[in-house]
Design brief:
The chain has a domain of 227 residues: Rossmann fold. The chain contains 17 helices and 8 strands. It has a 6-stranded mixed β-sheet, with helices on both faces. Helix 3 links the parallel strand 2 and strand 3. Helix 2 crosses helix 7, helix 4 runs parallel beside helix 12 and helix 14 packs across helix 15. About 4% of the residues have low confidence.
């Protein structure tokens, strides 16, 4: 078995070296810290070490996307690996440089969920992947293409991962114009190279166990992580085909609601008492995964419109009080872990300061929530003053005034929101030399909140829909009558013309 994997590795190394030397197109290696990406990067590294110094000049960028909500254990492993990659590559004088990529602050999970009110991701509304994973890497690759004209993306994808993955890979394999390079469907002037595309799961683990990691981390630690993330607690050293492997262990975002259950985090906690500090994260993730969240969300869409589906309103963003509660729960989990977790996680950030600042800006300026509740929530949970300056000194009203207004409005949330938003519109236009557009802005604000409640809004939406359908029917009927009249005129005209002739 060992001889078999050595032959497989020797063949792969020869292919990597030939492709690397064949042109001057820079490589971008995708690295997640998992077994497949680790095996791919390790192959590339070993191949470059085996080249002559004059041949090893083409840059190899190693990119790793941190969504900022990665499984903390894996995130720590990847961060340590990236540091080691840069250090050891420099020591070995290899043209390898690692880059930690993160989404723009406006695209992070908590800014969208807590700030804008996006509901927890679902398969029919999977807003997270593009923003948090795809965009950061695509930005980097586009920059490499801009500077060099082309780029080769080196990935640890394998056909034996799944039948779906195999189908996609074979589809693009047929479009190859160069050996080993498939076209990149989403990025022009870039190609995809998968050096372990034919490897089995056993091949990957044998390679990682039999060959020392060249950037100084212990592959056995990676095996231990997979073992800890396996629900049955077993991920043995793969030495022959009769030994079960760890292919079903998956790492990802700890907040992910696209799966029914975070099996890896459950297993980590179950298999290792030292990881029980992740329990608050697991509980928060389970709360996010609410199957019926209609009560948590506004009956209006983000624009303020009421849209119907099967005669019921399509729920919009999370309500203000719900978003405030999500923020409180995230800060409580972070505070608890920092206080009760092991020394290695005492500085953990489940939500970053830049995210908190952006959430506050969205609440205060975009959503007109001039109660400015974020600093208060932060102080109540953490016991510390929120480290940020006032965002809007021109606002004449604040938390105290809004408390009085809320008392006056009583339980009429819509009336309160309308008055609050009208105050914000007036304030925004008060400093302008020309107040053009203020009436339209005031009208739009009133239209969003003039309802007596959700039932009234739904009734009006149904009436509007019925009027629209009735008007469409009338218009369609009139159009048919007009067409018949026009045809009659044309026929009559042709008849008169024929008689004249």
């Amino acid at each position: 078995m060992e001889r078999g994997i050595k032959d497989t590795v020797a063949q792969a190394l020869a292919e990597v070296k030939d492709l690397y030397r064949s042109d001057h197109i820079p490589w971008v290696v995708g690295y997640s810290g998992g077994k497949d990406s680790s095996a791919t990067l390790q192959l590339v590294w070993l191949a470059l070490l085996d080249l002559e110094p004059g041949q090893c000049v083409k840059p190899v960028h190693v990119i790793s996307t941190d969504t900022l909500v990665e499984n903390p254990i894996v995130a720590d492993w990847v961060e340590h690996s990236l540091i080691q990659i840069n250090k050891l590559a420099e020591d070995a004088r290899l043209p390898i440089k690692a880059h930690r990529l993160t989404p723009e602050t406006a695209d992070t999970f908590w800014v969208n969920l807590i700030g804008k009110g996006y509901p927890a991701p679902r398969h029919k509304f999977r807003w997270c992947t593009e923003r948090m994973k795809i965009s950061p890497s695509n930005r980097f690759i586009r920059e490499v293409v801009r500077e060099n004209g082309e780029a080769i993306l080196v990935l640890g994808t394998r056909k034996k991962e799944s039948s779906k993955r195999a189908h996609v890979m074979r589809k693009y394999e047929k479009q190859r114009t160069r050996v080993g390079l498939s076209p990149n469907a989403s990025l022009p002037n870039s190609f995809v190279y998968s050096p372990i595309e034919e490897w089995t799961n056993d091949d990957v683990w044998q390679f990682l166990m039999l060959y020392d990691n060249p950037w100084g981390v212990d592959n056995h630690h990676l095996l231990t992580m997979y073992q800890g993330a396996s629900p049955d607690g077993e991920c043995p050293l793969v030495l022959d085909t009769s030994t079960p492997s760890c292919g079903d262990s998956r790492f990802g975002c700890w907040v992910c609601t696209l799966v029914d259950k975070d099996k890896s985090m459950h297993a980590m906690i179950q298999n290792d008492e030292e990881k029980e500090w992740m329990l608050p994260l697991l509980r928060l993730r389970d709360k996010l995964d609410t199957k019926n969240d209609r009560e948590l969300r506004d009956f209006r869409r983000m624009s303020g419109a009421v849209q119907l589906f099967h005669d019921q309103p399509i729920p919009g963003p999370y309500k203000q009080e719900v978003r405030e509660d999500w923020l409180r729960q995230v800060l409580e989990a972070q505070t608890w872990v920092r206080k009760n977790g092991p020394e290695t996680v005492r500085s953990i950030s489940l939500i970053t300061l830049s995210e908190l600042q952006e959430i506050r800006r969205i609440w205060l300026l975009d959503k007109h929530e001039i109660e400015d509740s974020l600093p208060k929530i932060y102080e109540e949970v953490t016991g510390q003053t929120f480290p940020s300056e006032t965002l809007d000194d021109s606002q004449p009203f604040g938390r105290d005034e809004m408390a009085i207004l809320r008392d006056v409005c009583g339980k009429d949330r819509l009336h309160y929101e309308m008055l609050r938003d009208l105050l914000c519109v007036e304030r925004n236009y008060s400093t302008l030399a020309r107040r053009a557009g203020i009436y339209e802005a005031l009208t739009s604000t009133v239209k969003k909140s003039f309802y007596e409640g959700e039932e009234d809004a739904v009734t009006r939406a149904r009436q509007h829909r019925d009027y629209y359908l009735a008007a469409s029917d009338v218009l369609e009927a009139n159009t048919e009558d007009l067409d018949r009249l026009l045809q009659w005129v044309l026929d009559d005209s042709e008849s008169d013309s024929s008689g004249t002739d």
